[in-house]
Amino acid sequence: MITYDDFAAVDIRVGTITRAEPYPEARKPAIKLWVDFGGDIGEKRSSAQITAHYTPAALVGRQVLGVVNFPPRQIGKMISEVLILGVPDPTGEVVLIGPGQAVPNGGKLF
Question: Fewer Cβ neighbours under 10 Å: the N or C end of the chain?
Fold first, then answer.
C-alpha cells in the first residue's frame, strides 16, 4: 500500500498532442509525440508504442495524460521527456488515457 503523499508525488498532467511523426528508428514500432502541457511545463517530447491503434495524423489535437516529473530518457535517437499513459487492450496493445471532455492543458490529476 502507498500513501496519498506517495501518489501525489507523481505529477500527472493533461496535455494536447501538437505534433506526431512515425519513429522508424525505434526498436519496436513507435510514434514520436510533441505534447503541449501549457503554463510552466510547456511542450514535451515522447516516444510511444501506440501504432496498433493510432496514426500520427489522427493523434494531433488529442488530449492525453502524462507523467511530467520523470527524468528524461534516451529512446533510440531521441530524448523522451514525458511518459504518456495508456492501458492495454485485450491483446496487450496500448490504448491512450485522456479526459472525457476538453480541459485546459496542464491540469493535474488528483
Answer: N
